[in-house]
Amino acid sequence: MPAADIFSAKQGEPPVFRAFKTASGTIEPELIGYVFTTPDLPPVQLGFSGPIDTLVGMDLQGRLTGVKILHYRESYQSLRGDFIEDSGFPEQFRNKNIEEEFRVGRDIDGMSRATISSWAVARGIRNAARRVATAYLADSTFVAEANYETEVLFSLQQKSWEELIESDFVKQLLVPLDDLTELRLFVAYMGHYRLGELLVGATDYSNADREASIRVEDGSMLLIGIGGNAPMLRQLRLAVLQNGSVYPNRRDRFVFAGSGKKGKIAGQVQFAAVMILDPAIDIAQPFSVIYDTGPITGEFSEFVSVDYQLAPEVLALIQAPALPGELLTAGAMASSDLIELEENPLASWIVRNLWSGVAALVLIFVLTLATISRKGVD
Predict the structure, then answer these.
(1) Which of 263, 289, 311 is the last residue of a domain?
(2) Which of 100, 205, 241, 312 is the most exposed, fewest CB within 10 Å of its CB?
(3) Peptide bond into 51 cis (omega under 30)
(4) CA–CA separation, 257 vs 209, rounded Å?
């Protein structure tokens, strides 16, 4: 935080150093941002050999003002020395906004031969900064959009696994096999980090997202929960069918997503995986997930299938519609405000149904005008 003159002691929850600047002619110093360390904001992102502790500065608009690597013990360090600092990698984060995804290879250039380390630093900085923003930057655009996303997810968060299936957010695909065993697959879209964390937990989603980003450049993530009594899933028998075209799964587009210990999927499957959809698939349109049951793998002459379509509210979450300027401040509620709404059911109902009420008033107004117009003609 190079513009600061004074720093407070580390304090608060999460713990931060407050950064102040003293202007000439003023008595009280002005708060200009926060400085924090990633170990204070778990879950810690692991590099190739362990955590990479980082010091981060962020201004009041959610822009990073600087990054300093404090400590790490990556195995590559024994060959190259301080390869993270020497590469200039941390300098890329200066002036980046926490609304960005910080994806290595897209938003951030990775370090040569150190992809996992690059990812750990980038994801650790992003997640820590977003947690600090949620706690301390109530008026920021990021917090307003995050609260909008929370509102979109509200109904999903309240549902049990069975209710998610009943609502078609999760679909089941039963695959009877020749040996009289059966695969029980659960399919759900998780191409947004909040959906992923909801379904499989923050740690398993982060690991799956990292592995997916290392393997392929683009494509949405589709959760495949795997259960049943079959000995294994043959991933090359999976595919997506849309508008008559078959998009077979590939090994590099299929990653492990945990053993079903966290999130909504906890206790429902033996383990979870992610199929990274071909970018040619239009997620706004219906598609089918199919499993090849024919004699030759990959021909898809015989298969079982389940249809899937993203609900409008999920599409709204993924497409991240821009909030109108006048709603940014109104939507930027602090965590205490959200807790207050949860404790006050009436207030919560009003917030969630505000725009439905406005739409109803507009409709009544239009119908009244139409009635008056008809009377005038008569």
Answers:
(1) 311
(2) 312
(3) no
(4) 9
Q: At what angle do helices 345-352 and 354-377 cross, to 10 degrees?
A: 50
Computed from CA positions of residues 126, 131, 134, 136, in that sequence, does the dihedral angle turn out positive or negative?
Answer: negative
pTM: 0.66
The greatest distance separating any two alpha carbons of the chain, rounded to the nearest whole angstrom, comes to 91
Instruction: Quote the pLDDT of residue 321.
Output: 47
Residue-wise pLDDT tens digits, 280-295: 999 999 999 999 999 9
pLDDT for the residue 369: 59
Looking at the structure, tell me whether residues 272 and 132 fall in a common domain: no
In a domain, 102, yes or no: yes
Residue at 137: amino acid letter: L
Contact by Cβ (8 Å): 296, 236: no
As a whole number of angstroms, the distance between CA 196 and CA 149 comes to 13
* CATH classification at residue 253: 2.60.40
Please check whether residues 74 and 101 belong to one and the same domain: yes
Residue bearing the bigger pLDDT, 45 or 331: 45
Whether the predicted pLDDT of 339 surpasses 70: no
Boundary residue ending a domain (282, 311, 340): 311
Q: Which residue in 39, 24, 32, 25 sits closest to 8, CA to CA?
A: 32
Same domain, 68 and 21: yes
Average pLDDT over residues 34-38: 97
Which of 43, 306, 343 shows the shortest CA–CA distance to 175? 306
